[in-house]
Structure formats: structure tokens, C-alpha cells
Write a structure and sequence with these properties.
The chain has 290 residues and is an alpha/beta fold. The chain is built from 11 helices and 7 strands. The chain has a 5-stranded mixed beta sheet. It has a two-stranded antiparallel ribbon with strand order 1-2. A hairpin with a 2-residue loop joins strand 1 and strand 2. The longest helix has 17 residues. The radius of gyration is 19 Å and the shape is globular.
């Protein structure tokens, strides 16, 4: 039997409640700000998963990624055919979150204060009506309207792309701090704008959940920009490109984003594909040493 693809139906969101809980000996904290799905982790440990395993876990907080010693899982992946440096397969959501966590920890504090991020599965879960309200409640805790930029990794239709909200907390009439949305896609031939209806609805529901004064007509007029960024060379590099987009954008983003300066550094020759490969090799090597 082949491996199940990770994408829209990768997993069901499971929350963890008490900070005193532990699973298989690992502490689970309710104060974590990101997600890793239980099913993916247990499979990574090669444990047989029963329905009771999942029922034994009480639902409440969106993440316990930092509580799990990723290096154990990472070393196993480095030695396997799924190693990011070998680029033989697409990243699953669990691997993506582990690598993202390493990248995020390396940014200086003054950069991180301008940014926040959403879990890479939240957008896919939002698209499922039964999980929508829960996802919106998690986003509300992130206080995204107080940040200059919000990074939203997306995995839909077995493809990774990066959504970036800019200045959502600013006036929609601002000229120097322009509220807008960037969609960075390393496979533009797949038509990134097919996500626009879902993105617009997502934004509207976020504003509504926050009790913001902007109406639907104003929110739907926020510019959605798709810069012509470097493109992947095969069908398996999209997750790696998104990680590299995140790294370079955080390092280079202006303090105040204005449409007048768009696309800034985000052009088709922004970087070469070989740079992504070297970046992934270094990242993988670092995790191997941890």
C-alpha cells in the first residue's frame, strides 16, 4: 500500500488541554504557539495507532511541537529516503513544522517582533466547515492585527505556497503602510489565483472574528499580489521553496510595506534554485547535529 499524501486531508486537528499531560513520556504544554498532528508524529515513531490512543488525549491547545524532541525524529529522516537534502519527496506537514521551527529560532529578536505565523495546516482545516470556528479561535489568540507581517504557509492539493498578510491592523486608506496580501508560489503554472476565493473568505472571517469595523466590501478590496518569484524545477521542491521564501522575506522585508515599492526584492531572479538546495542541505546538516 502506498503512502497517503499530505494535503487537504492530511489529518484531523487535535488539541491538547492540560500542561500536566504527557503522551508516551513526552510532556505536552498548552503554551505552545504552533501545531504538529499526533497521527504524523506517532507514525514517525513507527507506533501502531489505535482509536483509543487518540481518544485518550483531551482536546484544547493548538500545539506541542516544541515539547517533542524533534532531533530524534529528524535523525531518522536524515537517514531515510525522505531526507530534505536529497529532495526525493515532498515535505509532509510534520517535517515542515520542524524545519520551520529551526529557521524561526535563528531570526534575531528585532525581526521576530514584526512577524507572527500560523500553523501550516490551519488554512486547510479552515476550508473544512466543521473545523472553521475552531481555527478562527486559534488565530484570534495570535493577535495578528498587532503585527506587521503574518506568515501563512499553505498546503492545498498536495502543493505548498506561502501567504503573507501585510499591515492588516492598519487603515485600508494608508499609503505608507498598505494593507495587502502576498501569495508566493514556486509553481505559478498551477494558477495560484485559484486560491483567491478561499483566501478572501478566510480574511473576511478573520476580521469578523476579531470584531473589526471594516465591512466585507472593504476587506475584499485589499490587494492580493502574486509576485513572479523563482520557480521550482520539479514537482517535489515546493515545500523547500516555501521555507526559503520565509527565510529571505523575514531577512529582507521593509519595516513598512508599501505597494509603491512592490515587488521590492521579490522578482523572478530573486535567487537561483541551487541556493534553495544549498540552504536545505545546511538546514538538514544542522538538525542532524542537534
Amino acid at each position: 500500500m502506498g503512502k497517503k499524501k499530505h494535503g487537504d486531508d492530511a489529518s484531523i486537528p487535535i488539541e491538547i488541554g492540560s500542561s500536566d499531560l504527557a503522551y508516551n513520556g513526552y510532556p505536552i504544554s498548552k503554551h505552545r504557539s504552533c501545531w504538529i498532528h499526533v497521527v504524523g508524529y506517532l507514525r514517525g515513531c513507527r507506533k501502531k495507532i489505535s482509536k483509543q490512543d487518540l481518544l485518550d488525549i483531551e482536546l484544547t491547545a493548538p500545539c506541542f511541537l516544541d515539547s517533542i524532541p524533534c532531533r530524534t525524529r529528524s535523525n531518522r529522516r536524515v537517514k531515510s529516503k525522505n531526507s530534505i537534502s536529497k529532495q526525493k519527496s515532498k515535505l509532509d506537514s510534520g517535517s515542515f513544522e520542524c524545519y520551520f521551527g529551526t529557521i524561526w529560532s535563528r531570526f534575531p529578536e528585532d525581526k521576530r517582533t514584526l512577524f507572527t505565523y500560523l500553523d501550516c495546516q490551519w488554512f486547510a482545516w479552515y476550508r473544512k466547515i466543521s473545523y472553521r470556528d475552531k481555527v478562527l479561535s486559534w488565530i484570534k489568540r495570535k493577535e495578528i492585527f498587532s503585527k506587521t507581517y503574518v506568515l501563512v504557509p499553505i498546503v492545498c492539493w498536495d502543493h505548498w505556497s506561502l501567504l503573507i498578510f501585510c499591515h492588516l491592523g492598519e487603515s485600508l486608506q494608508s499609503k505608507t503602510r498598505t494593507p495587502c496580501v502576498l501569495l508566493l508560489d514556486s509553481l505559478q503554472m498551477s494558477d495560484p489565483m485559484r486560491l483567491e476565493p478561499d483566501i478572501r473568505k478566510f480574511m473576511f472571517d478573520i476580521y469578523k472574528a476579531e470584531g473589526r469595523p471594516e465591512n466585507k466590501q472593504m476587506i475584499y478590496k485589499i490587494p492580493l499580489l502574486v509576485p513572479k518569484v523563482p520557480q521550482q524545477r520539479n514537482g517535489k521542491e515546493c515545500g523547500n521553496f516555501v521555507l526559503y521564501f520565509i527565510k529571505l522575506f523575514v531577512e529582507s522585508a521593509p519595516e513598512n510595506f508599501s505597494i509603491e515599492g512592490y515587488p521590492y526584492f521579490m522578482e523572478k531572479d530573486w535567487f537561483h534554485a541551487e541556493a534553495v538546495e544549498r540552504f536545505c542541505e545546511r538546514l538538514d546538516s544542522t538538525r542532524k547535529k542537534d
